[in-house]
Amino acid sequence: MTACSKDFLSEKPVTGIYAENLLVDYQGFENMSNSLLYLVRCEFCTQTIPLGGSEFPTALNCNMSTLWMCGQDNAWHNNRTAYYQHQVVPKLITGMTDGQAFQSIFEWLYKTVNVANMIITRAENPDVNWQGGSQEVNLQRKEKIIAHARLIRAWAYRHLVYSFGPVPLSTREIVGSTVRTDWERNPIEEIYGVMEQDYLYAVQKLDWREEGNNIWGNQAVARHYLGELYLAKGDPESAKNILRPLVEGNEYYLMTSRFGSNKANDGSAFMDVFADPQYAHGNREVLWMFPNADKTEVSSGYTSGMYQRNMWFNWYVSLSEVTALTHSAYDGLTIELFNQVNNNRGVGRCAISKGALDLYDWNGQGGKDIRYNNDAIVWHLYFMGEDGQKFEILNEEGESLISTEITPNMVDDSYPNIRNYNWPSPRKWQWANPIIARANEAGQFNDVPYLRLADTYLLYAEALYKLGDSKAVSWINRIRARANVSNAKESDMSIDFILDERSRELVAEEERQHTLIRLSWENGGDERKADNVYKSRVRKYNEVCGRSGRGCDDDVTPVLFPIPQDFINSNTGRKIEQNPGY
Questions:
Q1: Bridge partners for 391 per DSSP
Q2: Is residue 371 a contact partner of residue 504, using CB atoms and an 8 Å limit?
Q3: Nearest CA to 418 among 351, 508, 512?
Q4: Dihedral (C-alpha) 20, 21, 23, 25: value to the nearest 10 degrees?
Q5: Cα(333)–Cα(377) distance, rounded to whole angstroms?
Q6: DSSP state of 87
Q7: pLDDT digits (tens, 9 = 90+) for 123-182
């Protein structure tokens, strides 16, 4: 005890990678920033959810995004609901106070916040070697790293607020000396204030594209989310001003001509956007995308596959007409061949509501809308004949297997697990493994878009509409023109019409819960009220979740998720109130 100095006790780890020996130079900060991006990608990855009961006794993998994209007005949960049963019968959420799915989201987002805070805090260390060769370049590199981390921190709080309402606000790295057990739920206005400053910093310090591509967060992403935040704060003028350089500039624009690796095939420019989301591959519409590589094909490693196709592509292989298929050249690989022919593999967690599908026929345009045809939505299923030619699989009546007929399970309150395997699916996330023997594996290894300029156009139209600007409809008509449908008129404009167009354009992409809660909160609104935007649209357009008595026709069924009980119990220094209804 008397032989060593205090300095000797300072840990200097050398046998592994830790923040202490990684966040010392620019290369280390770039590596940590990529790790932060991995956490963002987890929205499309899976979390293992423990299950109880005899039907699914082990575990169920569902990705985070389905909790925000499914169960609102334009989608319901189709297959193996378990902890997602409220996306069929909304009031069942009140029995899920300890729901592992909600705890997983809470913990994942706060892990993201803390990693961002670590980067922001440690970037201020004057001993960091920014490896820029000059003070000017060193400062630019430091500011870029901080701006990217602040953008991600605000992104995480956006999810937290629209999922849980008021939540603890953490803006510094949590280490041993800063661990707390007296957190409070900070007011949403206070959280908005931090988000606004984070987004503004990112707008000022980030380029339109970082690293020459749209893989890192960038100024375009920051402007988009800041515009949405200003709308949430009731400030459409600021929303218009921050969004205008993005929508009126030439850095990004809607793709209206065929391009990319899929342009020689049947399809449309709209679907090409999903097939090739990288800016480096010619895509000028996607603001932010997630790269994805198969570990067996990339020698330098990979990150875990995404599961959007599993979530949204129906489990058509369970249909009797499909299980009966055979092909002499593919003995034992019939399902794999089916997946390749139909360019996808899924398990059908989420399904577009019939009400949302009917929206495409606004003004009689359903037959023209390229977002509604068989290139964009599955209306027909195919297989390969012995002659090598593709043919459509039909039912006994000689009709398509795909149907929007309401089935008994969709209206049975006692059975919140629908399994309608004839229902149409969006093709936005489609991808088939080119190796036939692997075509039934769950992993998805194609690049996927996360945020598109079309979404920004719709935010901009909302801001202009709220300002009484007649040009609002023109920004919606740019999207409609690309979709090959008729223009809307100024007299058609309303918040409901904007939400209709958001669904037509962004279904299976938009975190729909966030949008509906944001609009329900306007002018001090309560998201639980039956007459608010959220519940009224669920009743109108979701034939499953909106059925009478399922929770969207009362003022008490929660819409926000429950605060995890584990967090409430561990916060011994201050009492944390649970959200109403739990």
A1: 383
A2: yes
A3: 351
A4: 140
A5: 25
A6: G
A7: 999 999 999 999 999 999 999 999 999 999 999 999 999 999 999 999 999 988 889 999
